[in-house]
Structures are given as structure tokens and as C-alpha cells.
Design brief:
Length: 361
């Protein structure tokens, strides 16, 4: 898991520390505003000083209460009844602590008066109304803490799920690329083998060209993205190897690229070319052809390939490449448009990718 326990603790510490600072400022403001009416004879500097002190005292009660309840919520895995008993006991102790601090310290020691509800009731310590006020003050704070912590945990869980999905997609893409390289190598070596059987003079050049292509597949294709200029160069190298063998083949490549530095995932475009050579070209067709048209304009890629084909397809055609590329496109460019038109005498593919769409990056 990319998110470690240590980073989780650091995140929790920062968020909770920030929460308590904000909460303290809010409580100081509210109590300072309330003290204007409760103690109008006090100068504002004294009232502010007293408010700062008493709110620090309240935090000594509220913080243990909040984290005791959180501990029971997260760690005490008994029945709901036992959990509720713990909750009630902790809250009762906190309310008693709140009342003792308010009645015996805040009023007599900080404000120098005896706590009263009004002129007719001298003491507020055991009065139900003030106890309820203390309870509501504590419960409001607990609700805020639980809300912050549950939200933090949900965000952390979403981040973990997102990272797991990303790791899974990376692993799947790696496996797909691993399937491509042996498949591509097998087809190319098979072509060179045919040339060697004929003792063709171009065989050494084809081997050298293959070496260049495999260097691209091993090193360049390991990157997440590569410039479309380099990807096109690899396609041209591949076509050159195939043309050495297929002398009768007409290959026309037209490119119109307004941004050669535009990045694209490697080994995507070449697979359509590979399929065109493997499944669309036959020695029995004297006028075999492949037409490739690639255009990149304003961040929108339009890629068209058309090739001649036999009316009777190859018996052992696995179409691994096409299945593979469909899956890669789904993972890398979810909003791509891929159109395949399979006719009796020709095969046409059109791919459109909008690189301006951030969801496809």
C-alpha cells in the first residue's frame, strides 16, 4: 500500500491539530462576545484574557472526551450495548468535569463571582438546565471531531482505492505490453526468416533495422508516454523492414503533425500497422496495398489505416494485437473513438483521440 501507517498518522495529526486551533478560536470568540453581557463592568482586555484562559481549561476536558469516544468507536469491538455503556459513562464524567471546572474555577477564580442562574436561584452546579447546557456544549464538540475524523478516513480510503486502481491499471498495461513485444518480435523474425531462406541481400539490413526497433521496444516503450514524433519514427522503421520482403506491396504513409512533441502512450499506433501487414497482405495479391494517414491538429489525433485483404482470411489468425489494443485504449484513453470496417476485399480502421480531454491523460 502506497499510503503508509506513518503518513496516515502524520495526516491525522495535522488535520486534528488544525481543527483544534480553529475550534479554540471559535470558542474564544463566542465566549468573549457572551462575556460583554455577563460581565459588562470588566474591561475588554481583562475579558479577553479570562476567555483565553478558560477556553484552554475547557480543552483539557473536551480533548480527552473526544478521543476517548473515538477510541471506543474504533477500538472497542464489543456489542453495541457495551459500546453505548462506555459512551454514556465517558459523557457523564465529562459533564461532571465541565460543571466542576465551570462552577468552582471559572466563576469564583477567574471572574470572582458565584455562578447563578438568575437572581432567584443561587447555585447552578446541580441544576438540570446548566447540566444540559454543559452536555450540549460537549456533544457539539464531539460531533465536530467525529465529523472531521470520519471525513478524513473516507478521503484516505478514496485515495487508497484510487492508488490501488492506478497500480492495477499499471500492472495490466505492463502485462499487455509484455504480450505485444513477443508477438511483434515473432512476426518480424518470421519475415526475416523468409528473407534468409531466399538468401536475400537485404537480410543484414533487415536485421539491423530490427535491432533498432527492438531498442525502441525495450527502452523507449518502457516510458509511460513518448513524443508522437518518436512513435512515428518507429512505425517507419517497421514499414521499412516489411517493404524489404514485400516488394510487390504498395505502402503509402501520409502525416500531418502540427505538434511533434505531443505525447502518446508508446506501442499503440504501430499495432494497427502490424495487423495490416500480418492479416492484410498476401503473396497471392499482386496489388496489395496499405494506406496510412495520421493527422494531429490542435491536440486531436486522427489515425486511419486501410489495407487490402484476401476474401478468405488466414486460418490461424489470432487477432491478439487487435484485442490487446482495444483494452489498452480503454485504459489509457477512455473517450477514444475506434471504428473498424471489415469488408470482403479491404480492412479499414480509424482511431480518434482527443489529447485535450484531461480524462484521457
Amino acid at each position: 500500500m502506497a499510503i503508509s501507517v506513518t503518513s496516515d498518522r502524520k495526516s491525522k495529526l495535522k488535520i486534528h491539530l488544525f481543527f483544534w486551533i480553529l475550534y479554540y478560536i471559535l470558542e474564544v470568540y463566542l465566549d468573549f462576545y457572551w462575556s460583554r453581557y455577563q460581565f459588562p463592568d470588566f474591561i475588554w482586555q481583562l475579558r479577553l484574557q479570562n476567555t483565553l484562559i478558560l477556553e484552554l481549561g475547557y480543552l483539557l476536558i473536551k480533548i480527552p472526551l473526544a478521543y476517548s469516544l473515538l477510541y471506543v468507536y474504533e477500538k472497542i469491538h464489543f456489542t453495541k450495548v457495551i459500546q453505548c455503556i462506555f459512551y454514556v459513562l465517558i459523557v457523564i464524567l465529562a459533564v461532571l468535569g465541565h460543571r466542576i471546572f465551570t462552577h468552582y474555577i471559572i466563576y469564583p477564580c477567574i471572574y470572582g463571582v458565584i455562578e447563578t442562574l438568575d437572581s432567584k436561584q443561587p447555585s447552578g452546579f446541580i441544576n438540570g438546565l446548566v447540566a444540559f447546557n454543559s452536555f450540549m456544549d460537549l456533544i457539539f464538540m464531539v460531533g465536530l471531531v467525529f465529523g472531521v475524523e470520519i471525513t478524513r478516513q473516507k478521503n484516505m480510503l478514496k485515495e487508497q482505492i484510487s492508488q490501488l486502481k492506478s497500480e492495477k491499471l499499471d500492472q495490466e498495461l505492463t502485462m499487455l505490453k509484455a504480450q505485444i513485444n513477443p508477438h511483434f518480435l515473432f512476426n518480424t523474425l518470421n519475415n526475416i526468416y523468409g528473407m534468409a531462406l531466399k538468401k536475400a541481400d537485404e537480410t543484414p539490413d533487415a536485421i539491423l533495422q530490427l535491432s533498432k526497433i527492438m531498442r525502441y521496444n525495450i527502452y523507449e516503450a518502457a516510458e509511460k508516454n513518448i513524443s508522437i514524433e518518436k512513435d512515428l519514427e518507429n512505425i517507419k522503421d517497421y514499414i521499412q523492414i516489411q517493404k524489404i520482403r514485400h516488394h510487390h506491396l504498395s505502402v503509402h504513409l501520409q502525416e500531418n503533425i502540427d505538434n511533434p512533441a505531443q505525447e502518446i502512450s508508446p506501442l499503440i499506433l504501430i499495432q494497427f500497422v502490424e495487423n495490416a501487414f500480418k492479416h492484410g497482405i498476401s503473396e497471392s495479391l499482386g496489388d496489395s496495398y496499405i494506406t496510412i494517414d495520421i493527422e494531429l491538429k490542435n491536440g486531436i489525433l486522427t489515425y486511419r489505416i486501410e489495407n487490402s485483404k484476401e476474401e478468405i482470411p488466414h486460418q490461424h489468425s489470432t487477432k491478439i494485437g487487435l484485442k490487446n489494443i482495444r483494452r489498452q485504449l480503454e485504459l489509457l484513453y477512455p473517450k477514444h473513438k475506434l471504428t473498424v470496417n471489415d469488408k470482403s476485399d479491404r480492412y479499414m480502421v480509424q482511431l480518434k483521440i482527443d489529447f485535450n480531454d484531461t480524462s484521457s491523460l
